[in-house]
Write a structure and sequence with these properties.
With 278 residues, the protein is of the alpha/beta class. The chain has helices at 15-21, 31-34, 38-47, 98-110, 125-134, 159-174, 204-216, 226-233, 241-248, and strands at 2-10, 51-56, 71-74, 78-81, 94-95, 116-118, 122-123, 143-149, 180-187, 254-265, 268-277. The strands form 2 sheets. The chain has an 8-stranded mixed β-sheet with strand order 6-3-8-2-9-1-11-10, with helices on both faces. A 3-stranded mixed β-sheet has the order 5-4-7. Strand 10 and strand 11 form a beta hairpin. Helix 4 packs across helix 6 (159-174) and helix 6 (159-174) runs parallel beside helix 9 (241-248). It starts with a strand and ends with a strand. The relative contact order is 0.24. It binds 3,4-dihydroxybenzoic acid and fe (iii) ion (FE). The site of 3,4-dihydroxybenzoic acid has 12 residues, from loops.
């Protein structure tokens, strides 16, 4: 049987791609963020997941405003990283976990989630950066299932619905008959706003409360509407919806294996957390 062995949530600032390429992990600006990962890689060495289910938002590489699904899932044999305009070098393609993808997709549709099914899908920095942070050699030892959440075209799926999507993904994984250790990733946030009068907006108090809720009260953020979340976390801070999907996959108690928070990386309050189900 498939089993969720951990949940990794992390920010995904594109400039990290350049920092990785230029080997700036020990540079004083970048170090406080990259220092969040050695302990997580030690955990990975011990636990050795087989499959990653990555919940993230596309930023206009695979979906743009002309075609923007609320929720989409990849069922492809591989996922290609392409230049999305930030000047970040691309990464080797990511093998797809096709059987698990189709299983989750079927289960979600039967569970009333109208997923867009993508048999081809380009993946942007929100998918690729967490992978490169976990496996810096970029030789992927896992297969992937990408799950895309719209965080760009309003109205967004509500926080409540995102959490429920996570619960439904968790049920689907638990019902997958093959043996597999699954790591669920939630990529995005925390507070940041890239444009307009509030460009540079960060809300440390909200972020710390949200991080605490991920451990102790995972449905806390489901009280907020999409507009509330913009007010509290900035226009792009709403990416924390991906954290809620990921946390929803293990709705019970979790243990924090590692946690890191640093302001700012580029325009973003950058956070990383790793949880194990208990
Ligand atoms: C930044 C953060 C993001 O989440 C993103 O998608 C693009 C840029 C930033 O802080 O620069
Ligand atoms: Fe983003």
């Amino acid at each position: 049987m498939a089993k969720i062995v951990g949940i990794l949530t992390t920010s995904h600032v594109p400039a990290l791609g350049k920092a990785i390429h230029l080997n700036l992990q020990q540079d004083p600006y970048w170090k406080p963020f990259f220092d969040g990962f050695p302990a997580i890689r030690e955990w990975l060495d011990q636990v050795r997941p087989d499959i990653v289910v990555s919940c993230y938002n596309d930023h206009g590489l695979n979906f743009f405003l002309d075609q923007q699904p609320t929720f989409a899932i990849g069922t492809a044999p591989e996922y290609v990283s392409e230049d999305e305009g930030w000047g970040i070098p691309t990464m080797p393609s990511f093998p797809g976990a096709e059987d698990l993808s189709w299983h989750i997709r079927d289960s979600l549709v039967r569970d009333d989630f109208d997923m867009v099914t993508c048999q081809e899908m380009l993946v942007d920095h929100a998918f690729t950066l967490p992978m490169a942070l976990l496996w810096p050699e970029q030789k992927w030892p896992v297969k992937s299932v990408p799950v895309c959440v719209n965080t760009v075209l309003f109205p967004l799926p509500s926080a409540r619905r995102c959490y429920r999507l996570g619960e439904a993904i968790g049920r689907a994984i638990a019902a997958f008959p093959e043996d597999a250790k699954v790591l669920v990733i939630g990529s995005g946030g925390l507070s940041h706003q890239l444009e307009g009068e509030r460009a540079g907006f960060i809300n440390k108090e909200f972020d710390l409360k949200f991080m605490d809720s991920m451990v102790n009260d995972p449905t806390w953020a489901t009280q907020f509407s999409d507009v509330d979340l913009v007010e509290q976390t900035g226009n792009e801070g709403v990416e924390l919806l991906n954290w809620l999907v990921a946390r929803g996959t293990v709705p019970g108690a979790v243990r924090v294996v590692h946690s890191n928070f640093h302001i700012p990386i580029s325009n973003t309050a950058a956070a990383t957390m790793l949880f194990e189900p208990v």
